[in-house]
């Protein structure tokens, strides 16, 4: 059941106007609902970003462990338009992708259609590592690589002074490039597939100390008002030429789950016959031969 999206009225007027304009655009494209899936490591600001977009404290935020270890969907309605946002627990634990958490998310999403995937990480991280690759791979294996055509990379903690005398835009460029490379390799995209399907990267600053412009909108060091910007990118991706992702049982089971490995069955049976059955038969025969004859035989 969707509640009224009242948080929108708490935004500065300029933001409200822009958001209502974007919702209006969606309605002209005959979209009266959007479902956004939010994923990423724990503690990167997934829940905070959702709250910022909705303009209310809709999901729990914690500086430490995620307190709700399962996905939650928040739905808000505004003049006949429904926005669904699915918050998920971080899928990384102790340096590994947590398959159980991933399974939980998949089951939660069963029969839902994802219009946009927000892949969240922090802007103020200087390296990408194998773990990032593993997360992207896990998402790709769970929902198919097409999910990235509906993907947006979101970088939080965007109010920062870059290190090493780099300019803000240069730093943002370098960080985006590094992350997009991970997505491209973890999503197993070929060069050809990347062209024309570039994944947008957007900046977010959830802190209450985020700077504001003269219209009271939260702005980034490069001057852009980030809330209208992220919502605009979300609506663009939602309505791009790629189809939304329906999470059905087949998708959850993986490609040809029943077929997988079937061609090996004759091989395995032959192996069993020659190396197991024959050996066991030989042992039995030897045992019989070794057995002392009973006196009555
Ligand atoms: N400064 C700053 N802190 C943030 C930002 N986003 C999240 N946080 C803080 O980081 C911590 C984890 O945030 P949370 O949204 O719970 O992360 P999640 O585990 O990915 O859902 C909380 O203490 C947030 O207040 C941000 O953009 N800037
Ligand atoms: Mg969270």
TrEMBL record:
EC number, UniProt record: 3.6.5.-
Keywords carried by this UniProt record: Chloroplast, GTP-binding, Hydrolase, Magnesium, Membrane, Metal-binding, Nucleotide-binding, Plastid, Plastid outer membrane, Protein transport, Transmembrane, Transmembrane helix, Transport
Binding site for Mg(2+): 47, 65
Subcellular location(s) per record: Plastid, Chloroplast outer membrane
Residues annotated for GTP binding in this entry: 43-48, 157, 205-206
InterPro entries: G_AIG1, GIMA/IAN/Toc, P-loop_NTPase, Toc34
A GO cellular-component term linked to this record: chloroplast outer membrane
Top-rank lineage group of the source organism: Eukaryota
Any single biological process term in GO: intracellular protein transport
Molecular functions per Gene Ontology: GTP binding; GTPase activity; identical protein binding; metal ion binding; protein-transporting ATPase activity
First-listed, main subcellular location of the protein, grouped into a coarse class: plastid
Role description: GTPase involved in protein precursor import into chloroplasts. Seems to recognize chloroplast-destined precursor proteins and regulate their presentation to the translocation channel through GTP hydrolysis.
Subunit-structure text: Homodimer.
Family: Belongs to the TRAFAC class TrmE-Era-EngA-EngB-Septin-like GTPase superfamily. AIG1/Toc34/Toc159-like paraseptin GTPase family. TOC34 subfamily.
Name of the protein in its database record: Translocase of chloroplast
